[in-house]
């Protein structure tokens, strides 16, 4: 099923949703993390704010997203509930827990995100540091 077909099917089963605006994306570890969203364990994500291009859309409260697997196939729909900008070194243990990965601890979150963000920064010829602004997003799986 295409992303657009998946969206139209979602709208059919959720008639209160009248918008045609949605984002579709895959996580870095697409299959694993999409599965965690689908089973309700992963209800948050974090991105590095200053790696967004000027024209890139940033997550917004109320928006819908279609989570994709590694093959670009839709897995489920989420709705963003909270978006806040927090320095990397101040991301909370609660947020790390809601990301649903590993043992759900802040230490695990920092280790994984430090490695992933460092790689992304290196690709952009920039240097990662622990004060980078992070977009912390909380979402709810709605289908």
TrEMBL record:
InterPro entries from the UniProt entry: ASCH_domain, DUF984, PUA-like_sf
Recorded coiled-coil stretches: none
Domain ASCH: 25-143
Signal peptide stretch: none
PANTHER family associated with the record: CYTOPLASMIC PROTEIN, CYTOPLASMIC PROTEIN-RELATED
Protein's recorded name: RNA-binding protein
Organism listed in the record: Levilactobacillus koreensis
């Amino acid at each position: 099923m295409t992303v657009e077909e998946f969206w139209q099917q979602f709208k059919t089963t959720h008639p209160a949703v009248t918008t045609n605006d949605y984002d579709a994306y895959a996580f870095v570890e697409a299959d694993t993390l999409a599965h965690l969203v689908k089973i309700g364990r992963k209800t948050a994500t974090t991105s590095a704010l200053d790696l967004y291009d000027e024209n890139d859309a940033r997550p917004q409260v109320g928006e819908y997203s279609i989570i994709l697997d590694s093959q670009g196939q839709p897995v489920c729909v989420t709705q963003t509930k909270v978006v806040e900008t927090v320095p990397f070194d101040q991301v909370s243990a609660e947020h790390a827990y809601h990301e649903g990965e590993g043992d759900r601890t802040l230490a695990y979150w920092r280790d994984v995100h430090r490695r992933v963000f460092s790689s992304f920064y290196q690709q952009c010829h920039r240097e990662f540091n622990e004060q980078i602004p992070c977009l912390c997003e909380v979402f709810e799986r709605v289908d």
